[in-house]
């Protein structure tokens, strides 16, 4: 359950915000229950109102709740009520305060409520006490004066189980990368990157089918990359970049085409094409134009065998990208067509806390560069030229490693929350908890 507090002082607009959120959810057909406490007239700012009514959700009917009585402490006489809150995806309970903290008022509702998202209206001075009463911390505390408060709450409340699923599939995706990926890199099998990207596309397909908003599936890759950053050692640069871009491309296909067979093929094609293209781009970044010189003998060999005349290096590289994309697209489409065979087992996979032989990751990172240098020397380039290319590759690799070393999961969580991405932040937290439990 996602636990959210709307916290602020008396008269800050907590109830107004919650009422607006409730009305928006009702209009969207969301399963929502609870109540909003509406204040009557106030004798002075910052002072409790003379009367309070409760607006029932989802009927929005108003019933009397409390009348101010200065002879009492707290100074209110509460009217008898047998209020119950039915199970719902989202439950909103307003003005949870001292009465509930001390076991009175609506405290019984806090213990019996059943929902995916629980939003509580709380005075800012009572946040810690309410957390202690509930036995857990709030996942998110929002101030009603936050200009984006309503938007943030609606993003979390609409399709709340999406973020739980994203966290679970993100943990599964990270587990695939850290277990199978580590094994493939250790064995130095050719095409391992393409295989991993295809598996990631299949995981994304399975995840998207269970989301109310399938285009959110791109966040699965962000969570997976975040878990990759949490690993203590090993090659992280290429996998993290590849994973995030793969998720973004797959989500783009779904956003444009919907959750359809065509979207599965296009998404798989983009993921597979990127897996091949990013390796080529990285090698071009590391060795520059020497990459073309290394591929040129292959281009001539293919042209001779197929009687094509001169075949440029660019056509060879483009052909590899298209071939990789088409293959992954077809595999993902086949999975989509037989989607009754879910990858439910992935939910039980978690990422390991360490890699057995981290030096293998470093060797795997530089292996393509070593192949390019070997081809250059074998085809007549000088050792001096090859040495300068090697120095360039090492320098750029160190720079990339330094940048990626700054990435911390805690910083990712804080950054996501700071910029209003509360759902992805919650998903990453779910994945981290899953990993720690595993």
Q: Can you walk through the features of this model?
A:
The model is unreliable at 340-364 (pLDDT under 50). This protein is of the alpha/beta class and 438 residues long. The chain has two domains: 2-157, 3-Layer(aba) Sandwich (Rossmann fold); 160-437, no CATH class. Strand 3 (51-57) and strand 4 form a beta hairpin. It is built from 16 helices and eight strands. Strands 5-4-3-2-6-7-1-8 form an eight-stranded mixed beta sheet, with helices on one face. Helix 6 (160-187) crosses helix 8.
Short description:
With 438 residues, the protein is an alpha/beta fold. The protein folds into 2 domains: 2-157, P-loop containing nucleotide triphosphate hydrolases (Rossmann fold, 3-Layer(aba) Sandwich), CATH 3.40.50; 160-437, no CATH class.
What is the secondary structure topology, with strand pairs?
Layout: E1 2-8, H1 14-27, E2 32-39, E3 51-57, E4 62-68, E5 76-78, E6 90-93, H2 98-101, H3 107-112, E7 117-123, H4 127-134, E8 140-142, H5 149-157, H6 160-187, H7 192-209, H8 218-230, H9 237-257, H10 261-287, H11 290-306, H12 313-337, H13 359-378, H14 383-405, H15 409-418, H16 422-437
Parallel strand pairs: 1-7, 1-8, 2-6, 6-7
Antiparallel strand pairs: 2-3, 3-4, 4-5
Quantity of strands, as a count: 8
The proportion of residues forming helix, as a percent range, comes to 55-70%
- Describe the strand arrangement of the main beta sheet, using strand numbers: 5-4-3-2-6-7-1-8
Main sheet makeup: 8 strands, mixed
Which blocks of ≥5 consecutive residues have pLDDT under 50? 340-364
Give me the number of helical elements: 16
Q: What's the order of the H and E elements?
A: EHEEEEEHHEHEHHHHHHHHHHHH
Q: Give the structural class.
A: alpha/beta
Rg over CA atoms, rounded to whole Å, is 28 Å
Q: Give the overall silhouette.
A: elongated
């Amino acid at each position: 359950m996602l636990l959210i507090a709307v916290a602020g002082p008396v008269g800050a607009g907590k109830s107004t915000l919650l009422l607006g959120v409730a009305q928006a959810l009702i209009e969207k057909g969301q399963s929502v229950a609870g109540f909003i406490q509406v204040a009557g007239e106030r004798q002075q700012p910052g002072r409790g109102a003379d009367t309070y009514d409760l607006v029932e959700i989802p009927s929005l009917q108003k019933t009397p709740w409390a009348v101010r009585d200065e002879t009492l402490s707290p100074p209110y006489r509460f009217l008898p009520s047998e209020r119950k809150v039915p199970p719902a995806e989202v439950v909103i309970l307003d003005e949870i305060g001292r009465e509930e903290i001390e076991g009175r008022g609506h405290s019984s509702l806090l213990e019996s409520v059943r929902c995916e998202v629980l939003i509580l209206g709380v005075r800012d001075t009572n946040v810690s006490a309410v957390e202690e009463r509930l036995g857990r911390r709030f996942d998110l505390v929002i101030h009603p004066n936050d200009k984006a408060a309503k938007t943030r709450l609606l993003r979390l409340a609409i399709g709340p189980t999406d973020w739980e699923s994203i966290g679970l599939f993100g943990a599964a995706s990270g587990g695939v990368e850290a277990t199978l990926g580590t094994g493939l890199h250790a064995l130095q099998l050719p095409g391992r990157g393409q295989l991993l990207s295809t598996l990631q596309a299949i995981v994304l397909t399975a995840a998207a089918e269970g989301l109310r908003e399938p285009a959110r599936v791109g966040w699965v890759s962000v969570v997976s990359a975040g878990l990759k950053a949490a690993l203590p050692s090993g090659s992280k640069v290429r996998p993290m970049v590849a994973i995030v871009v793969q998720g973004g491309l797959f989500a783009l296909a779904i956003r444009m085409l919907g959750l359809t067979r065509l979207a599965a093929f296009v998404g798989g094609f983009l993921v597979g094409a990127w897996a091949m293209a990013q390796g080529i781009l990285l090698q071009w970044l590391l060795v520059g134009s020497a990459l073309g010189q290394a591929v040129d003998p292959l281009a001539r060999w293919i042209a001779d065998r197929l009687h094509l005349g001169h075949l440029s290096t660019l056509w060879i590289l483009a052909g590899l990208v298209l071939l990789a994309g088409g293959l992954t697209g077809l595999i993902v489409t086949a999975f989509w067509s037989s989607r009754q065979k879910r990858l439910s087992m992935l939910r039980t996979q978690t990422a390991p806390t360490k890699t057995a032989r981290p030096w293998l990751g470093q060797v795997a990172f530089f292996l393509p560069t070593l192949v390019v240098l070997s081809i250059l020397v074998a085809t007549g380039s000088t050792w001096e030229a090859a040495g300068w290319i090697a120095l360039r590759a090492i320098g750029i690799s160190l720079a990339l490693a330094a940048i990626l070393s700054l990435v911390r999961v805690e910083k990712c969580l804080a950054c996501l929350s700071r910029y209003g991405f509360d759902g992805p932040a919650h998903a990453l937290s779910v994945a981290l908890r899953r990993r720690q439990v595993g």
